[in-house]
Structures are given as structure tokens and as C-alpha cells.
Amino acid sequence: MSQFEHPYVEHSEHLEFIVPGSAIDEAFFNDLLQAMVEATEKTGKRRVFVDRSQSDQSIPTDAMVVYRLAIRVGEAFGASVRIAAFSPWAENDSFWENVATNRGAIVKASNDRESLLSWLLSDD
Predict the structure, then answer these.
(1) Where are the chain's structural domains?
(2) For the domain bounded by 8-121, which CATH number is listed?
(3) The pTM of the whole model exceeds 0.85
């Protein structure tokens, strides 16, 4: 049983997970990834939007946590699920995005919510 809750919103074409402000540790993100896997299996939706706009940017997530999470995203989903990660302070070319993509995942990180949603819902 998880020590965290990961509610999600099921939209017509995608799932949306909202990361709470205090989430920065590896246990939380591993648990979130597991919740994403379970939700995609349950709903059959293959597009996931992760909203980190509530996260506290003054407490950065450790780079090795980001690295390991990116590897796990590739292992968990490969090219079967498209994932968009929104963060107001994210750069378009993020470390997480590069590592996950190198592991076969279809992911994009950005600080532009609208363009990120367009990418997520596109068929490209």
C-alpha cells in the first residue's frame, strides 16, 4: 500500500496528475510513477500530463533522483505512453527529458503549458 495519494483527472484523451508542493523525494516520485502505470493500465489512456506548477521551486529535486526517475520512466513505459511534464521554471530541454528519451520514452518537459498540451495531444 502506498504512503502517498496520487489522484488524477481523466480527460477525454489524457490523464492529468498534479504534484503537490512538498513533493521532492525519490520515494514520492517512484510512487507517482507506479500510480501512473496503474492508471494507464486501468483507463487505457496512453497520454499523461504531469503538472508540477504547485511544486516549491526553492527546494530543487536532487539531480540523481531526476536521473533515476527518468530511467524508470523509460523502463515502465518505453514508447507506449506519451508523457508531458509541466513546470513553470522548467527549461524546454531538460535533463529528465533527455535521459528518459535516451531510454526509449516519449516525453517532453516545458514551462509552456499550452504548447505542452498541444504536443501531448498531437499525433506526431
Answers:
(1) 8-121
(2) 3.30.750
(3) yes
